[in-house]
């Protein structure tokens, strides 16, 4: 009895000593300096930008259009602030790490590729996407130099997990309410909905069928443009949440033989009931929405991540966890899958369609590898993939994709093989750090509780305030970029995210975050990016750069005998983590970094931010004038927009379309010249665009039918020849060329192109794309045959009849 009492007294003494040491250390902390307050402001800005990023619907196409310019601007502003603060506080040691050097090399190669390719591509999307990559690099550098200590890293990880819960709630809202509502509204009045979304699609047209297929889809997308993007995000942070749970469980279960003075710290770090409840609900919500996405890649990536976590925590599984927890986990997963089948969220097509989906990917990858072989050193330029892709697309491929759905091939295609090597170096350094280095939270004594490992009130307040402001800014930012989401879904997501953050706040304050968990979560995301793509999409790629940035440099693990000594020495270790890897930067180097960051900021404003936003504003004004029938004012506004943003083809395309209508109303030679002048400027901006040349040929043919000028037929033939050269495996491109040759009176050329069109059509297994389901944009062609296939058969046989 006396021994038990003595043991209790010793344990109580250890807990008291730990608390006293913590209080003493806190009391010794000086008031926050100006530099520290600025750093916390930067931490708040990071949290706000992470929230806003997840509520801007953005895919590769919208990045090219400039949807993400506000985000890039914010990151560059933060980078400039961090660089200037680093120069101002030169007394604090700053080092350039290997991963930062590899990142800078990677971004430099992307920029070089963009400069070398800008003259041979549509410059506006190339510039927009290039700066988006620079924005990713800026976010990496900002997080790396602003975030300090495990507590702040946990805060950002908890924020991204909370956002995953919020997006899952948004997904459930779409699946259960907003998507069925939209399908019913379309059933009641299809033309009205098409008009509201700005789509011109006659009945039975491929465009209308594509819209109807998308509307019939039951897979949620939340705030993303594609369901695979949502799945990639959810799977990443679901695995991270599993890793946090396993680390916490292992921490609490494997330290019973640790020194008595550390037991108090272990007890203080065990999760509370509210934290466990929040974690369990988060797993259910994220897992349930992930199942509804039907993303096979995300399923496999998640299973891979959970398997790696099980291997990493093998000792805890074998010695402490036993069979109950795995059984319970399997039952929960089974219940989620069964529930998804019951409500129709899953079906047998998820498995039966997998080989077909993989075959489509393989077709994309074959074409992309041919593209890389032709442009191995500096690629084709960011934002230029789709325009170049048509020249390599296989006859049997299903669609003209925006990206190759593989991050390795995408980087090699847009920036070249050296850039891919540089990006591989970034990942290699991160992997080396995880394997060879350990942060303070990975030490052999996971029980330790110190300022480096616990989150300060200032840090927590900064993240909470920044995330709250970011949440309030989501609607205004959506309005500014022109993508306004369902406000009910947005607020449900924000409320769910806030509730999850509150539930996880105990873990944030004094939990454990393993570097291996962060690495496995990044690996899960990379697996998704290997098949689904999205490496250039902010909502997806930002998670990767954050995970790479919050990996601390790490110091070798050191066994320490007491918590009190840890408290005294951990602050020095947190500084030492930066000093162990990389090159020291003197004051001159810091001044150069600050100057470069300011130059980047000014260049971005001049190249992207100002011209894109000003052009869009003037284009909106021009469209309003055109709708009101005020042609002269609309034309002046389009010309002003073209002058504001000389890199963009958009004003010239809209001006060409407007001048076409004027020409068709009054088929004079002057109006024809005005139309052709605008079209020439449009085509100058789009040298590799099959779409632009096809559209120009259609417009010329309409002008020919209206004015009967024979010279226009030659121009139609020339435009469609360029289109066929840019899309050699398109049956429709050769069918148009065959028809143009027939209208020009060249029956031999018409028969040859018709035969090629039919040959390519036979290789295309996609029924909706076959010539039998297409029509040419020419009334005379409709009179000649019911569909393009019959028309081509007629043209092909005309050569045989003429030879007889």
Written overview of the protein:
The chain has 804 residues and is an all-alpha fold. 75% of the residues lie in helices and 0% in strands. It is built from 35 helices and 2 strands. The chain has a two-stranded antiparallel ribbon with strand order 1-2. α7 packs across α12, α10 runs antiparallel to α23 (515-531) and α13 (296-312) runs antiparallel to α23 (515-531). The protein is globular, with a radius of gyration of 30 Å. It starts with a helix and ends with a helix. The relative contact order is 0.12.
Blueprint (SSEs and pairs):
Elements: H1 2-28, H2 34-53, H3 60-65, H4 69-88, E1 95-96, H5 98-117, H6 123-146, H7 149-188, H8 190-196, H9 206-216, H10 227-253, H11 260-269, H12 273-293, H13 296-312, H14 314-321, H15 324-342, H16 349-352, H17 354-374, H18 385-389, H19 407-415, H20 417-436, H21 457-481, H22 487-510, H23 515-531, H24 538-549, H25 563-579, E2 583-584, H26 587-627, H27 631-644, H28 650-665, H29 669-685, H30 690-707, H31 711-726, H32 731-743, H33 747-763, H34 779-784, H35 788-803
Antiparallel strand pairs: 1-2
Helix pairs in contact: 1-11, 1-25, 2-4, 2-6, 2-21, 4-6, 4-26, 5-6, 5-20, 6-24, 7-8, 7-10, 7-12, 7-21, 7-22, 10-12, 10-13, 10-14, 10-23, 12-15, 12-22, 13-23, 17-19, 19-20, 21-22, 23-24, 26-27, 27-28, 28-29, 28-30, 29-30, 30-31, 31-32, 32-33, 33-35
């Amino acid at each position: 009895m006396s021994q038990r009492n003595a043991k209790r007294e010793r344990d109580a003494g250890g807990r008291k000593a730990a608390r006293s040491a913590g209080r003493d250390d806190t009391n010794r902390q000086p008031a926050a300096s100006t530099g520290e307050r600025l750093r916390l402001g930067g931490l708040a800005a990071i949290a706000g930008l992470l929230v806003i990023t997840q509520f801007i619907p953005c895919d590769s196409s919208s990045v090219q259009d400039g949807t993400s310019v506000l985000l890039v601007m914010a990151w560059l502003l933060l980078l400039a602030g961090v660089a200037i603060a680093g120069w101002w506080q030169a007394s604090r040691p700053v080092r350039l790490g290997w991963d930062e050097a590899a990142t800078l090399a990677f971004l430099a190669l992307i920029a070089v590729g963009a400069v070398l390719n800008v003259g041979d591509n549509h410059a506006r999307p190339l510039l927009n996407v290039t700066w988006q990559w620079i924005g990713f690099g800026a976010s990496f550098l900002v997080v790396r130099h602003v975030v300090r200590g495990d507590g702040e890293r946990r805060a950002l990880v908890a924020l991204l997990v909370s956002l995953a819960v919020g997006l899952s709630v948004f997904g459930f809202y779409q699946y259960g309410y907003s998507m069925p509502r939209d399908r019913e509204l379309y059933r009641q009045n299809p033309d009205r909905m098409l008009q509201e979304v700005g789509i011109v699609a006659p009945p039975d047209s491929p465009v209308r069928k594509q819209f109807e297929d998308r509307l019939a889809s039951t897979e949620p997308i939340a705030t993303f443009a594609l369901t695979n993007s949502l799945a990639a995000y959810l799977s990443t942070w679901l695995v991270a949440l599993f890793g946090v749970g396993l680390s916490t469980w292992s921490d609490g279960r494997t330290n019973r033989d640790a020194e008595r003075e550390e037991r108090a710290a272990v007890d203080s770090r065990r999760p509370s009931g509210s934290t466990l409840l929040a974690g369990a609900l988060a797993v259910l919500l994220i897992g349930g929405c992930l199942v509804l996405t039907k993303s096979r890649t995300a399923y496999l990536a998640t299973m891979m991540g959970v398997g790696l976590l099980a291997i990493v925590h093998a000792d805890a599984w074998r010695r402490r966890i036993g069979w109950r927890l795995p059984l319970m986990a399997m039952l929960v997963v089974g219940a989620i899958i069964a529930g998804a089948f019951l409500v129709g969220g899953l079906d047998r097509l998820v498995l039966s369609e997998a080989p077909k989906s993989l075959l489509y990917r393989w077709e994309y990858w074959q074409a992309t590898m041919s593209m890389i072989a032709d442009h191995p050193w500096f690629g084709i330029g960011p934002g230029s993939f789709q325009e170049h892709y048509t020249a390599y697309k296989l006859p049997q491929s299903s669609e003209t994709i925006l990206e190759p759905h593989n991050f390795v091939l995408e980087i090699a295609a847009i920036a070249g093989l050296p850039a891919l090597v540089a990006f591989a170096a970034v990942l290699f350094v991160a992997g080396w750090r995880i394997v060879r280095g350990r942060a303070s939270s990975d030490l052999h004594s996971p029980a330790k509780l110190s300022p480096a490992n616990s989150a300060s009130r200032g840090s927590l307040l900064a993240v909470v305030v920044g995330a709250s402001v970011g949440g309030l800014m989501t609607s205004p930012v959506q309005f500014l970029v022109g993508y306004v989401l369902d406000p009910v879904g947005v607020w449900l997501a924000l409320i769910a995210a806030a509730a999850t953050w509150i539930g996880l706040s105990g873990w944030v304050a004094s939990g454990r975050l393993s570097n291996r968990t962060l690495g496995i979560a990044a690996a899960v995301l990379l697996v998704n990016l290997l098949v689904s793509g999205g490496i250039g999409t902010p909502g997806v790629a930002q998670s990767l750069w954050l995970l790479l940035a919050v990996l601390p440099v790490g110091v070798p693990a050191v066994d320490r005998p007491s918590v009190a000594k840890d408290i005294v020495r951990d602050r020095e270790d947190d500084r030492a983590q930066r000093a162990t890897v990389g090159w020291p930067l003197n004051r001159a180097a810091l001044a150069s970094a600050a100057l470069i960051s300011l130059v980047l900021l000014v260049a971005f404003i001049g190249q992207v931010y100002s011209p894109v936003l000003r052009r869009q504003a003037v284009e909106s004004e021009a469209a309003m004038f055109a709708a009101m029938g005020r042609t002269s004012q609309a034309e002046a506004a389009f010309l002003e927009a073209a002058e504001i943003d000389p890199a963009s083809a958009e004003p010239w395309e809209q001006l060409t379309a407007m001048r076409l209508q004027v020409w068709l109303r009054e088929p004079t030679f002057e109006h024809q010249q005005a139309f052709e002048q605008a079209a020439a400027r449009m085509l100058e901006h789009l040298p590799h665009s099959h779409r632009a040349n096809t559209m120009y040929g259609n417009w010329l043919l309409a002008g020919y039918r209206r004015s009967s000028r024979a010279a226009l037929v030659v121009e139609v033939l020339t435009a469609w020849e360029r289109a066929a050269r840019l899309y050699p495996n398109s049956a429709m491109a050769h069918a148009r060329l065959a028809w143009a040759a027939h209208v020009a009176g060249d029956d031999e050329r018409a028969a040859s192109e018709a035969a090629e069109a039919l040959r390519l059509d036979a290789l295309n297994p996609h029924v909706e794309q076959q010539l039998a389901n297409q029509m040419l944009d020419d009334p005379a062609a409709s009179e000649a045959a019911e569909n393009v296939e019959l028309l081509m058969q007629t043209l092909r046989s005309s050569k045989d009849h003429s030879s007889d």
